[in-house]
Amino acid sequence: MEHKGFTAWFTGLPCCGKTTIAEKVAEILKNKGYKVEYLDGDIVRKNLTSDLGFSKEDRDENLKRITFVAKLLTRNNVAVLATFVSPYQKRRDIIRRDIGDFVEIYVRCPVEECIKRDVKGMYKKALSGKIKNFTGVQDPYEEPKKPDLIVDTDSETLDESVEKVLDKLDELGYIEK
Amino acid sequence: MEHKGFTAWFTGLPCCGKTTIAEKVAEILKNKGYKVEYLDGDIVRKNLTSDLGFSKEDRDENLKRITFVAKLLTRNNVAVLATFVSPYQKRRDIIRRDIGDFVEIYVRCPVEECIKRDVKGMYKKALSGKIKNFTGVQDPYEEPKKPDLIVDTDSETLDESVEKVLDKLDELGYIEK
After folding, report:
1. CA distance B131 to A90
2. How many domains does chain B have?
3. What is the ipTM of this complex?
4. B71-90: per-residue pLDDT in tens?
C-alpha cells in the first residue's frame, strides 16, 4: 500500500511504555500492508552511534543522526515509528522541522511508576549512582509543550493507548484505520 | 512507481567519475518516477559521520553506518545510488551481504588520469603531503574482484557509462529501461 510517509515519535521517560505501544502500532500497520520501520535506542546505538554516550552533547548527536535516517525514510513513504527518550524540547523541535511529517507522541507516566517498573534495572543503577546522566534521575526530562498526542500509560490500557495513536494518525491523514 | 529497491554502489578512486555518472542515473530514474536517494561522502559525513576521519578504522565505521541507512532504504523499495571510494574488497563484500539487493559498479580510471582531473585539488594536497591516508596516493585501492559492472571513464563518454549502468539495472530486474 503506497501512502504518505511519516515519523511517529514516541518521547517519554525510560520505562514509560514507549516501546510496548510502538511495537503494537508497528504490528498493526504492517498487517495492514504499510511499509514500517521501527527505530529505537538499541538498534540505532548498535548501527549508527556506537561511539556515543549519554551526555547532552552525545544525546544531541545521536538524535541528529537518527533524524537524518528518519527523514530519508519518511520522504520515501515509510511509516517510521521511533522511540527515544529525547528529553529536550529544543531538539524535538529541530527534529520536527527537519522531518516535516512528524507526529510527537508524549508517552506520559509519573517517574515513581517508571521506577517501579524498571524493566532493565536501569533506574536502580542510576539511583545507586552506578549510571550517570540517567533521565528522570540525574538528568531532566522536559515535557512536550505541544505534543500531537498524549497517552497516559499509568491509567490507560495498552489497547487504549494504541487506539489513540491510530486515531491520531488517521485524523492527520497518514493512515486509514 | 513501486518497484524492488536496490543499492547501486559506485566504487573507484577519487575523481574517477563516480558522482557524475550516479547523478545522471539518479536524474533519469527520478524522471521515470522511481523513488531515488543519492548518498555520497559529503552528505553522509555531514549528517552521520562528522566525527570520523579517513583512517582504515574510520572508513570502515563510516561505511558501516552508510550500510545501515542504505539497507533500510533498499528494503523499502528505494533506488539508492551510493558513491564512495570504498577501497577495501572485504568491506564491499560485507556491504553486499548486508544490503542484499546490491549492485557493485566499478568506475575504473587510471590514477594518472584521476590526478590530471583533480577536481577538488585533493590529489595535489595528498602528493605534497598536506593530506594523509588519501586513496591512490598513500592508501591502496583494491580493485573489485567480481563487480557487477565495470565502466571505464577514460575511454567511454558519460552517456555510454550511464547507458551501461541502466542496462545492467534493467538486466538485473531492478528497473525497466
Report:
1. 38
2. 1
3. 0.90
4. 999 999 999 999 999 999 99
Show residues of chain B in contact with A64, CB under 8 Å. 47
CB contact under 8 A, B76 and A72: no
Q: All 3 cell numbers of residue B53?
A: 576521519
CA distance, residue A43 to nearest chain B CA (Å): 10
Is A164 part of any domain? yes
- State pTM to two decimals: 0.93
Question: What residues pair up with A51 in beta bridges, in sequence order?
Answer: none
Q: How far away is chain A from the Cα of B152, in angstroms, using its nearest Cα?
A: 31
Is position B177 within any domain? Answer: no
Catalytic residue numbers of B read: 86
B72 with A77: Cβ contact below 8 A: no
Q: The domain that contains A129 carries what CATH number?
A: 3.40.50.300
The count of CB pairs under 8 A between chains A and B is: 40
Asked whether residue A176 is assigned to any structural domain, the reply reads no
- Mean pLDDT across chain B: 95
The amino acid at residue A61 is: E
Neighbouring-strand partners of residue A83: A10, A40
The cell numbers describing B82, all together, are 551510493
Instruction: Report if residue A1 sits inside a domain.
Output: no
